[in-house]
Amino acid sequence: MSDTSAVTQWVKDDSSLEQYTTLLEWMVNNGGQLHESVEIARDEQRGVHLQVKKDWKNRVLSNTHIIKTPLTATMSYFNAIGCSFSTDDGGSVSFPEHGLHLPHAFVEAVGQEDSSIFFLIGQYLRGNESFWYPYIRTLPQPGALTTPLYYEGDDLAWLENTSLSPAREQKDKLWKERYENTYSELCKSGFEGAEKYTWDLYLWASTIFVSRAFSAKVLSGVLPDTQLPEENVSVLLPFIDILNHRPLAKVEWRAGKDNVIFLVLEDVAPGEEISNNYGPRNNEQLMMNYGFCLPNNPCDYRIVSLRAPPGSPLQMARSQQLQMFPGLARETDDHYYVFNVFYPLLAPDTPMEHSIFSPALFNAVSILAANNRELETLEVSKQVIRIPDTYGNSRAILAALSQIIIELITHVVKLKSSADDLQNPRNLKQTHAKVYRDSQIMLSETALVIAAWTLNRARHHSFGGSWEETKQLLSSHMARVPPGKFPDEVKSRIQVRILERQSILASNGELFVLDDLIEILPVEMQGPCKACFQGVSQNAERDIPMLRGSSETSPFAFPMFLCFIRAAHSAGESRLETTSLPSRLSKWARCLLENYPAPPNDVLWALEDEDDEKLLDVFDTVLEAMKTRNSSIFSNLEKFTGEWQGDNWWLSPNWLRWAWMITEQESVQVPEEPLDLLAAGGPGQGKVVLSTASCLYIPQ
Fold first, then answer.
1. Residue 3: what pLDDT?
2. Could you tell me the residue ranges of all domains in the chain?
3. SS3 of 587-627
4. What is the pTM of this model?
5. Residue 115 and residue 108 in contact, taking contact as beta carbons nearer than 8 Å
6. 535 with 622: CB under 8 angstroms?
7. In terms of Cα–Cα distance, which of 103, 108, 87 is closest to 95?
8. Residues contacting residue 345 through CB under 8 Å, at least 6 positions apart
9. Would you say residue 294 has pLDDT above 80?
10. How is 522-553 classified by DSSP, letter by letter?
11. What is the fold, at CATH topology level, of the domain defined by 4-279?
12. 536 close to 611: Cβ distance less than 8 angstroms
């Protein structure tokens, strides 16, 4: 359709749409087209947009060509250099400069990207004399853009403690450096009117290209592959670029010989908006590049800033990967994400935890949290650096989850605390920033529920994992989420995410506090063990002032238990015992003795940490006194542990130091009641107090 007198049929009766009427006329005059079922409309929520006419009798069917933007209307680097190309059919296509001639030396010096930006600035400065004037006047003008680089004054407070704040500073610095260099080259070239090419206009034009341009692939219908640059050439497509973004909208752009076609790949009903799809962009990308974000963006995810400390196992593994596979290791860095529970772009076999925490993030934290035994098994390949899933390595999973939970809690607390002084948004930028902040909090809080679920399973020792048991435990877990905390669809989705995907944690009940440990011993051992541990702890509390009031969290509890298991296992191996350890504990004891060699009999060990050594030295004295004063405590265990009256008994100084070191390696500091955070941090709800419990890891 090319009759300009018919253009008004495409525009809803709204005088404020005059600029878009003119743009449409201009596009049609240059050979473009808008499908007859579609109209331009405006409302408060969506702004200017395209929609199927409400009185249109039929749905617009999939594969309908909605817009055809003529190649002659596009703007790109090819216009900046005023070039022409021969087509396969013997014709040619030209991309004229339309009255703006950038010096060749300038273009050569600054490259394709900045040449395009300065070309747009030049056409903007030409005003109504520019060929693209009908298009440029519909673009957001310099004072109307809302990306973070345009935040100033009170607006900046809304970015505080979000990842947008450092990203904004970094981008501002980068673009200003580029502008200074590019502007210097323009002045050096002797270009008349160079002083008009200001930083403000550079910021505006750069933002327009970032937020609205398409890749050079949209010109593949006329440009030979050999002349089609893969990067640094972006193309502005007038009229197509007024479409709003809808995540997962099914659309396509097709390059033709005379135009670029936008078509829908799904049916659209009368009155519904025709949307574009900018790709699976998260809210941070939408804010940085487009100046808006979505409150319910299914493609949202948070980028986690995780640096490998110099000399850490993760840093060394990365270096090894880079040496083994140059280039690939760099490409796989920094894919550290926390995903929305609705995130749709997951492989069907993605484990439950990896559907929320990207595999790269989870593996990196696992390596940083791994003990020396687990690091011995570290795998470095082209695809991944990870702790493999073998016996005893699920401790790294649980330690990683604990660290991730602490990061999630810290993130939420930082965002909530920095919002204490923020009032209701006063402008569009602050409104978008509030949506962004709220979505970031939602991401971390929903991820927290899922991470806490896996840790919860690790502390339930009677949980068999059947479908009915899982549903009951999950119901109890979700009951800890404050009523009304999440919308029903979000709460439901959390449960679906947990139930529909297999966990990377194959076994349940692998983390223990002292009372739990006693219960996994044979019945005959439980009473004597409990009496022994309690008696020793009480004596230690009395004789060591710094331990008073800590009988339930005695630092000697786990080492004593480890010493007992080692002794009972050795007695069993020597067939001296009357009661055998369960196979799980025997297997664990063998693993410990293989990875942590027994101490010598003829040399006294000492811990490297002086404070720990002093504490154990005093504890040794307490034990020696008890061997005389409370001998029954140890004699009642003799049938399980063997001889206890000599120097090399089961709680000897060397065995205690052996067990002390193992405790440091084989324990996990688990956040206590992490879901309590969900009810804290709001007005009048008090501060968040995060406490952890030391749990001993015993693999299944």
1. 41
2. 4-279, 301-507, 511-670
3. HHHHHHHHHCCCCCCCCCCCCCCHHHHHHHHHHHHHHHHHH
4. 0.90
5. no
6. no
7. 87
8. 280, 299
9. yes
10. -HHHHHHHHHHHHHHHHHHHHH-GGGTT-GGG
11. set domain protein methyltransferase, domain 1 (3.90.1410)
12. no
